[in-house]
Design a protein that fits this description.
Elements: H1 2-10, H2 14-21, E1 40-41, H3 45-53, H4 62-69, E2 93-97, H5 118-136, E3 148-159, E4 170-179, E5 183-194, E6 197-211, H6 229-250, H7 260-272, E7 290-292, E8 297-303, H8 317-336, E9 341-350, E10 359-370, E11 373-384, E12 389-401, E13 408-410, H9 414-433
Parallel strand pairs: 1-2, 7-13
Antiparallel strand pairs: 2-4, 3-6, 3-9, 4-5, 5-6, 8-10, 9-12, 10-11, 11-12
Helix pairs in contact: 3-5, 5-8
Length: 434
Amino acid sequence: MLTARLYAMQKLPSLLARTLVSGTNGSPLLPDMAEGHLPIHVNNVRSRLRDIVGASTNWRDHVQAMQERKALHTLLAKRQEDLPPRRMKDSYLEVLLPLGSQPEIREKYLNVHNSVRFGRILEDLDSLGVLICYTHTKQEMQPRSPLSIVTALVDKINLCKKVIYPDCDIKFTGNVSWVGKTSMEVKMHMLQLHDGDYSPVLDATFVMVARDPENKRPAFVNPLVPESPEEEEIFKQGELNKLKRIDFSTASLLKMAPTAEERNVIHDIFLNTLDTKTVSFRSRILPPNSVWMEDAKLKGLQICHPQERNIFNRIFGGFLMRKAFELGWATACSYGCSRPFIVSVDDIMFQRPVEVGSLLLLSGQVCYTEKNYIQVRVHSEVYDADTREHHTTNIFHFTFISENEVPRVVPKTYGESMLYLDGKRHFAAIMKEI
């Protein structure tokens, strides 16, 4: 049975192959960027971050460690102009994940399908993005950084391979590609070793923000100076990405009514689900090969233990992304009744930190489908047992592709219709890029 299933997975529709081999459109690595850089082992990234901020490895010492960081306030720049400018290659880093050459670390990354767990890759990307930003802002005379750098947004992650092999070395590369006053855009690339050469797997764009030593107020970061026409283009793309995010947020369905075209889409869905045998707006029937949206969701709960804390003693953003992805994957898998493959991750906004000890509630919802594609939205919130209040921490958007064509998801209420349109917008934006 298992052999037959594995064989079936290898014979995916050509649509899947075209989508995932179409490549990503991230900026290419500049020719001299990697010169003189030795790769960092993936296991050393978190330890380097702890050294940079002076974080303790013992949970019981975290309060004292955070108190000691208060003294670093005097090292903060009063103006961005007081900080020395940096080049893109100043922040360039390479990180090696030796799954092939060091089999002992392989099991942590292995999934049941004998490929690499994408959730673990999200964790590594998050840690690397922070370390790249600390490299950009490093001051030679300061052993510890006064900045608290955290992930604000995962702008997009686009994949160009459907399978990540568990027995071949992986290399991550990345650098700061754009800088504002207190924020930095980081572009990262993941490559895997095949037949002696590294081939692209994914491109990722993260946005990080710098705050003061107590992680309370914004802090200035070093400006970025492009050195070539290629770097100028990358920097301009960072500006465009910022404007796109503003436009997307402004047009949010939580702020603005749907467009005329979108209203027609929803009304057509409504008409197609009316029971023609009755003259009633409330009598609804499900069209063939369709699933009500209310029946296309999964939920999960995580207790946030100290083991999952970051260097600032809050829950590690990469852990949140991994858990959200795994629930999103399970939601897509149960909906499509087959193994889904991740195509893209986009627009993950970190709205508020998650404290150690929190009860983290996750809700995965299929919000849009088209042919083999499944758009999944995962809502993350913390529950305060003392006040009985819920607070949203993150919204995650994942685009999956299934082995077979999937049923159409159908909204029933107005709220579900807005989720449907939001998923449709995200899907359309992804399709323009791949």
